[in-house]
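Step 1: inspect the first sequence and its tokens.
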Amino acid sequence: MSYLNDLNTIVNINSYTKNKQGVDRVGEIFDKWFEELGFEVNIYDRELIGNHRHYTSQHDKTAKKLLLLGHLDTVFPPNEFEEYSEDEEWIYGPGVCDMKGGNIVALQALRELKKKNCEIKNIDILFVSDEETGSDDSKHLTAKLASEYDYCFVYEAAGQDMEVVTGRKGVGTFFIDITGKAAHAGNSYIHGYDANLEASYKLQELVKLTDLEKGTTVNVGKINGGIGANTISPSANMVFELRYKNSEERDRVLNSIDGIVKKSFVNGTISQLRGGIQRDVMQTSEDSLNLIKNIEEITFSTLKSEERGGVSDANTVSSCGVVTLDGFGPFGDGDHTIHERASKESFESRIELSEKLFTYFVKNSDFKKGN
């Protein structure tokens, strides 16, 4: 398990999304590792965040193409949670499962392929630098590059029973800015337009859009407004999130949000909507389920699958029509906390799975048996 030394190296470099220098240091180390395997390094420079990195192999223009997807950034600012450690069963540290550990799985599987003297072709890697803050910059690049590929494996953490992920909810973040009219709460109460009161009505209407049976949630997570107890509130703002499992629910809620924003429950108030969908839904498809069946035939093993409420860059690639499976990284838990850890055993099984699939893919130019 010498690859754990590589994991140790990159985990001990702080790569908080806003720490451009740290993210780029991690990226530069991966540049060296992938160059040693024969990949060409393509860097997409960014001024305020880490650079995105696209590693490309030799391409057979008539063959299918596979994209391996990961991210370089983690969630902890410098000096908060930076130490790597391990015991007999677990590895601890920021990013060991989310997702520096997953990146190492992909890298090591490709190394194993190289050791077998298999030519690495038609397999490329994309590492972005801002996934933990919503991929607001990289999602455009990811979507553009996705059109070049037939399949995508995403190396976020595996499920507890080593499941891969076939579906993820879509997510959107929205802001409502409400303008009212200030007035003295004692002398001129009737002359004010209460923005806080308007926000309270909108809150109730937004929450009503939640449909748990269909997996749709609308959460108003933050409300600000007013200037003091003796003044009718002249302004308020609301921040809320939408998560959904299919495009029909997305459209239903978006249409309803527009109506809620346009309607003034308190006469005289005016509201404006900002924000939108960050990552569209990744819906389980017949193609993704067939790919799992093919993988099981190739590896002579069972591959469990699941859907998750959280999002990843798999949402973006899947939305572009690429057959996508997520969760190819190691199993871990405690991600986004100081208790983050990853199972050593899961590294071994995931590397073995990926190596088998890469070997089959480069020899057959597809994941379909009989090619």
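Step 2: inspect the second sequence and its tokens, then contrast the two.
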Amino acid sequence: MDATDSAEDGGGEPEEDEGSKDAASGTAPLPGNSDDFGVKRMVRSRYNYGKMVSYANKYWKHPNSAYRTYGTDCTNFISQAMRAGGWVPHGAIAPRTNNRFWFYGSSTLITSYTWAAAENWYWFAKKHSQRTKILDNVWKMAKADVLQADWGRDNTIDHTMIVTKKYRGTPYLTYHTSNTHDKSLKKLLSDHPRAWWYAHRT
């Protein structure tokens, strides 16, 4: 089974009620050549998607020793990749329980919930910072986009992954816990047919 985040892994209840999430992304295959969907205009972006992907490809198996690892390390790993690609920490000394902030510190007690817990990361990335938007279909994902999963459809996101390859219209995902490189979206959907998926355009 893939990762399931918990409070012990760096997250927990935020300071405020966040309301409702966006609708989950659809999973129906796209017509025609889906390589035409989800192309990013990298030249205009504030972020370096190539660096995000390179980071994930480099550290998927052996974690970067500059960061600590968590029992469930998937979102910690994705936060590192986003930072490598240009996401600037926000908050630093702000309350770690507030989903408006995203920062890494020398101990868990001075690291935001949003850094290492999937549910909290969603709210920072999509709602508060608007650094991502939810795609209406998972097959539209491009390199460096992020896919999150709610395995049990209980409205709590459990797992976070990054797209490191797209081949013949199929995104391939890389993640920690368990450490996995270039797993096809098709296989993920097959392995977890009941999950809700949230595909983030980064």
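Step 3: confirm your contrast with the notes below.
The CA atoms of residues 25 and 136 lie 5 Å apart. The beta strands are 133-134, 146-150, 159-167, 170-175, 180-184, 196-201.
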